[in-house]
Amino acid sequence: QVQLVESGGGLVQPGGSLRLSCAASGFTLDYYAIGWFRQAPGKEREGVSCISSSDGSTYYADSVKGRFTISRDNAKNTMYLQMNSLKPEDTAVYYCAAVGSWSLADGTPTLSESGYDLWGQGTQVTVSS
Question: Which of its termini does the chain have fewer beta carbons within 10 Å around, N or C?
Fold first, then answer.
């Protein structure tokens, strides 16, 4: 079974932190670029962060830059999103996604959801007092 499963979401107060995990099963993430996306109520899904499969280059949306950190642990076949200094506007369903590096023309991932093949089911993050 080829699957991505997010975990770590929940309710947190403004200024708090959460670490989201995305575990891959049925395949290895070694040769995949990975990304995190989110969708807030009434809004379209947006890219949050992504990381390449080769040199580990990372990219962040301006809205989360300096607060969120994306990482991967290929040995554990898992990717992470560390979220610090959370704000109410960060409230959303967060999704992890992956795309094989061979599917990327230049090997560089983007924050466009159309570029990803595999998706997790999503995990709810709520930032509220």
Answer: N
Kindly report the CA angle at 55 between 52 and 70, in degrees rounded to 5?
Answer: 50
Distance CA(124)–CA(116), nearest Å, equals: 20
pLDDT digits over 56-88, tens only? 899 999 999 999 999 999 899 999 999 999 999
123 has which bridge partners? 94
User: Is the CB of residue 45 less than 8 Å from the CB of residue 95?
Assistant: yes
Other residues' Cβ atoms within 10 Å of the Cβ of residue 37: 24
Classified as helix, coil or strand, 80 is: strand
91, amino acid identity:
T
d(CA 63, CA 78): 24
Contact yes or no for 7/25 (Cβ under 8 A): no
Residue found by looking up tokens 């554990």 in the block: 76
- Would you say 126 and 109 are in contact if contact means Cβ atoms under 8 Å apart? no
